[in-house]
């Protein structure tokens, strides 16, 4: 079976001329000339990127998803290929309803009609790894049931083995292979697929996002019904709305498209900078609009997370970029650790200026946040920057948000919309309110750290031969407490102030 699948991959690759894409990397050109003699009868009128997209579509849904993931790696791929792969649409025929029912009944251990008051046999949506059916709980609650395709784990394991074998060959035989890191890319894709195969993980993502936007006037997220969920079945609240791509229907229900586009930008920056947890697959098929104008988020298989370091890096870069403070942009990369500490700031600043300055010939409303971030990544790679996966997901999501926003309102000025949010977030990271918040966050660590200090001091002073051991203990403790250093200073100051007040009271009495 694997040989047949491998044979199909080879045949499709030859039919669409993918072999030429690899051979053109041969600097001598001898292999290209030999290959053209052997396959003299082949003629290709379409660009290489179009042929690659069509080949992936011919190979099936797993390869389509791989192409979709590749389209986000614009830090690695040529721009024409990345743009074309972004056009891939994962249109997959549904699997038989009786198979979906079998998966559901296996989870619950009883007939589907006993579990649900009503179950619609015809699926409403189908993708490469799952499909969705509508149903009603026994109390009448309308729900959407996501069911994994039976045997999809075996299919994915089979195709991933072939992809890994192909990536290994590219890495060894193609001169560009080392730079494009095909094996690492395939491994990243496999991780995302494994996550999507566990619907309990997706349900948890959905629940977290819903909690983050409780009572939000901008975004509504379906409720998860945990008693009905398992690894292969996810049951959530059925959402009623209009797909965001259906502009005439949105206008018909009275939706303000300009306000909707601005809300999309605010939702994105709220997820990124307030929560550090964002929906990373926000294409039009996953976004509906409620009758009251709120966004409806669907499909939570791919979520991105950001640390405080990531968030600070992004905010510093966006603000500095639009102030044309390129030295600050360069320093932000170094401070975040994305480029080596030995990097010369002036050289890095000059490279960033050369890339970014031409952008300002355009009006701010025409400047793409996503493409700006991409240019920064590409420039930083020259200075040994390893692009972080979470930032690549973010850049892909930002491009999606921009596309949706400008589809709704071509005059949308993303900078005017986003700048106040970024400035407000940065303001919350410094000053007295930020200090109080950090003290509260670090307080639990002090409870275990402070009592150890007298013991360590006594241990160090008790015998001379223990001084070195105590020094090592203190060094390890200091390393673990760098985050608490500010808090310890504050606590010490407060204790000293309280002691002084008490002495003053005693003297006065």
UniProtKB/TrEMBL annotation:
Keyword terms, alphabetized: ATP-binding, Cell inner membrane, Cell membrane, Kinase, Membrane, Nucleotide-binding, Transferase, Transmembrane, Transmembrane helix, Ubiquinone, Ubiquinone biosynthesis
Top-level taxon of origin: Bacteria
Residues covered by the Protein kinase domain: 101-509
Keyword RNA-binding included in the entry's annotation: no
Enzyme class: transferase
Active site feature: 281 (proton acceptor)
Pfam families (UniProt xref): ABC1
GO BP terms: regulation of ubiquinone biosynthetic process; ubiquinone biosynthetic process
Keyword Protein biosynthesis part of the UniProt annotation: no
InterPro entries: ABC1_dom (IPR004147), Kinase-like_dom_sf (IPR011009), Prot_kinase_dom (IPR000719), UbiB (IPR010232), UbiB_bact (IPR045308), UbiB_kinase (IPR050154)
Cellular localisation: Cell membrane
EC number: 2.7.-.-
List of residues binding ATP: 124-132, 146
Signal peptide: none
Pathway named in the protein's UniProt entry: Cofactor biosynthesis; ubiquinone biosynthesis [regulation]
Record's bilayer topology term: Single-pass membrane protein
Segments traversing the membrane: 486-507
Similarity comment: Belongs to the protein kinase superfamily. ADCK protein kinase family. Belongs to the ABC1 family. UbiB subfamily.
General function of this protein: Is probably a protein kinase regulator of UbiI activity which is involved in aerobic coenzyme Q (ubiquinone) biosynthesis.
Designated name of the protein: Probable protein kinase UbiB
Species in which this protein is naturally found: Denitromonas halophila
């Amino acid at each position: 079976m694997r040989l047949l699948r491998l044979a199909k991959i080879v045949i499709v690759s030859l039919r669409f001329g993918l072999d030429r894409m690899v051979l053109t990397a041969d600097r001598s050109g001898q292999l290209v000339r030999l290959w053209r003699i052997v396959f003299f009868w082949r003629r290709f009128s379409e660009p290489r990127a179009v042929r690659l997209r069509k080949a992936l579509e011919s190979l099936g849904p797993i390869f389509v998803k791989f192409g979709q993931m590749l389209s986000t790696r614009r830090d690695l791929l040529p721009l024409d290929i990345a743009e074309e792969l972004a056009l891939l649409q994962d249109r997959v025929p549904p699997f038989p309803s009786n198979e979906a029912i079998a998966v559901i009944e296996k989870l619950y251990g009883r007939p589907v009609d006993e579990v649900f008051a009503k179950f619609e046999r015809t699926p409403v949506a189908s993708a490469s790894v799952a499909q969705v059916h509508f149903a009603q709980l026994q109390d009448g609650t309308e729900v959407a049931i996501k069911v994994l395709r039976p045997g999809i784990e075996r299919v994915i394991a089979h195709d991933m083995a072939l992809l890994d074998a192909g990536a290994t060959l590219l890495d060894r035989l193609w001169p560009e292979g080392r730079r494009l890191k095909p094996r690492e890319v395939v491994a990243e894709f496999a991780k995302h697929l494994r996550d999507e195969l566990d619907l309990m993980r997706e349900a948890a993502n959905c629940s977290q996002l819903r909690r983050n936007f409780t009572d939000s006037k901008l975004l509504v997220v379906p409720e998860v019904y945990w008693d009905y969920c398992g690894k292969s079945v996810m049951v959530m609240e059925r959402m009623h709305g209009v797909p965001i791509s259906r502009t005439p229907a949105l206008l018909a229900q009275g939706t303000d498209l300009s306000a909707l586009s601005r809300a999309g930008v605010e939702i994105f920056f709220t997820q990124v900078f307030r929560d550090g947890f964002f929906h990373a697959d926000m294409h039009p098929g996953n976004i509906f609009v409620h009758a009251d104008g709120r966004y409806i988020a669907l499909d939570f298989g791919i979520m991105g997370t950001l640390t405080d370091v990531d968030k600070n890096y992004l905010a510093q870069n966006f603000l500095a970029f639009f102030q044309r403070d390129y030295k600050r942009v360069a320093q932000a990369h170094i401070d975040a650790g994305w480029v080596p500490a030995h990097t010369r700031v002036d050289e890095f600043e000059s490279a960033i200026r050369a890339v970014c300055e031409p952008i300002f010939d355009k009006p701010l409303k025409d400047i793409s946040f996503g493409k700006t971030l991409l240019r920064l990544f590409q420039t930083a790679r020259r200075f040994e920057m390893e692009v972080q996966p979470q930032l690549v997901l973010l850049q892909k999501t930002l491009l999606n948000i921009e596309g949706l926003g400008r589809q709704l309102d071509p005059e949308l000025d993303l900078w005017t919309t986003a700048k106040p949010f970024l400035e407000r977030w940065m303001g919350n990271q410094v000053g007295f309110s930020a200090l109080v918040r950090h003290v509260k966050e670090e307080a639990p660590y002090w409870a275990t750290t402070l009592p150890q200090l007298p013991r360590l001091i006594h241990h160090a002073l008790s015998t001379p031969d223990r001084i070195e051991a105590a020094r090592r203990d203190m060094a390890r403790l200091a390393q673990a407490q760098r985050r608490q250093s500010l808090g310890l200073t504050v606590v010490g100051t407060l204790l000293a102030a309280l002691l002084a007040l008490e002495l003053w009271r005693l003297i006065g009495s």
